[in-house]
Amino acid sequence: xxxxxxxxxxxxxxxxxxxxxxxxxxxxxxxxxxxxxxxxxxxxxxxxxxxxxxxxxxxxxxxxxxxxxxxxxxxxxxxxxxxxxxxxxxxxxxxxxxxxxxxxxxxxxxxxxxxxxxxxxxxxxxxxxxxxxxxxxxxxxxxxxxxxxxxxxxxxxxxxxxxxxxxxxxxxxxxxxxxxxxxxxxxxxxxxxxxxxxxxxxxxxxxxxxxxxxxxxxxxxxxxxxxxxxxxxxxxxxxxxxxxxxxxxxxxxxxxxxxxxxxxxxxx
Length: 268
Known about the structure:
Strand content: over 45%
Number of strands: 12
Order of helices and strands: HEEEEEEEEEEEE
Number of domains: 1
Strand order of the largest sheet: 1-2-3-4-5-6-7-8-9-10-11-12
CATH topology: Porin
Shape: globular
Largest sheet: 12 strands, antiparallel, barrel
Distance between the termini: 34 Å
Structural class: mainly beta
Low-confidence stretches: 1-18
């Protein structure tokens, strides 16, 4: 009886939370409640990238993503996203608007009631500037995402998540490119509102859809606070290997050696 009561308590806490996602880089197959809005802000600092003049430890890129999510049904969600980047030690320094996106997610199964949670996400939008160096980039992008989640443990205190992502971009004057990403995350609920864990990513960049260009592997910790109407996630990622290598075992040309993300939001 104690175990059932505790599980019911945890379920009530999760249901009341503003956001069920404890990860900074991986998504979970959770949608905004029916008829409710969720406003989320992402701030991702990227450091140390080489823009062609050699490794620059002073390079800073701050990606700012603002998402407004709306629950269309219990399993469907609509998202509108505005993207900006602030650059230092780049071709174009300062704040730039990089594009607007519209996304739709459908949840096929819920990890809270089934062995695996599963959702598919589709997003499309325009691209107005390169988030690496700030140069003008006139084009449009799409994003396809398969999201999986599994809860386990004696009291369902562990959460595993993985995302399979394909993001092609078409430019009017520079052809097309595709970025493929695999994310993996493992989090543990350490007390009522707090979660800690680890996340990893494999990122592959291609010319067109399949001509391999470069890749990088990231790994780092994540900590999360989940309140009733507010949440905040903080995750750091270090590049542990890259290809082709140009700074030790890293690829500092196409990818930043280090990045950290703060994500927070409210439900209303």
